[in-house]
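Hi Q.,

Before the meeting this afternoon, I wanted you to have the iron/sulfur cluster prediction in hand. No need to reply - just skim if you have a minute. The sequence and ligand are here:
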Amino acid sequence: MADLTDPFGRRIEYLRVSVTDRCDLRCTYCMPKGFDGFEEPEDWLTFEELERVVAAFTRVGVRRVRLTGGEPLVRKDLPELVARLGALPGIEDLSLSTNAVRLARMAEPLKRAGIHRVNVSLDSLDPGRFAGVTGGGRLEKVLAGLEAARRVGLEPVKLNMVVMRGVNEDEVPAMVEFCLEHGYTLRLIETMPVGATGQAATSHYVDLQEVRARLAERYELVPAVMSGGGPARYVQVAGTDLKIGFITPLSQHFCETCNRVRLSVDGGLFLCLGQNDAIELRPLLRAGASDGDLDEALRGAIALKPERHEFREHPCQVVRFMSATGG
Ligand code: SAM
Ligand code: SF4
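Predicted structure with the ligand bound:
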């Protein structure tokens, strides 16, 4: 089987595809209020182009693909894209990251089209706070989306909670109980200084080592592994099925095991979440590149993957938004 290994010996087998940079929410740490620097629709990769790029990645060894954004459910006809990508030989895991606002309606068609599982962003279980963090989002829609995901079997459902000092830090135990009750996996995330939200994000930064220590006073936590866990380090609450993942880009580097690259909606191939360099695939695609040219471009790009991010040394160095490359 072909594989793609970078100069630091990391095998690249996971691709995150941003299918849109638009979103129906405005999370404070992700998209600044009033942000309007979106890509033009004519620059979005079409479904045909996305299918070509993902097919090229599968030829060089990628096995797992996640659709993200922006909010992927706002891209028109998403189930059609899912069906096309799901039909590519070599894809073993096709997943989706979503805010779940539109998931109640979309879960069933997405499951039918070939999505295996979903990660859902949820930072608060309090409707007022949720609205505050998301720029007016309605919690009940997300809860209905989560229910629908479980009902149609988009499992395991993982909840992503960005833990923020003075905002929702006190809700971690409530989120643990919610996940215990519903059978969801919980992933706690440190805020990352990305884009113009960088300053806002860092001012609420919480070191998740502290959060973990506080949880360990309430629950017996044992180390655990989770397939497809990515950079999260997992523990399990003893005597239950609940796994809790900690995603700690700042307090604990996870670059040495980084196995992923990211495609932006306009065809930029980003090699590191914490660096700005991208290889532009759209011009190649639109200039009639052959499959062989594309494979060559991907191999050349991976040879440039940086060793590590520099969030600590150069916070706010990354000028794009998380919504452009999908987190
Ligand atoms: N809209 C979808 C969602 O919210 O799940 C998918 C895209 S969103 C950019 C992907 C993930 O990035 C979410 O879990 C979100 O919480 C996370 N994220 C965005 N900005 C972040 C930041 N500054 N620090 C940490 N996580 C961030
Ligand atoms: Fe939208 Fe997701 Fe960013 Fe929130 S985190 S603004 S839901 S893209």
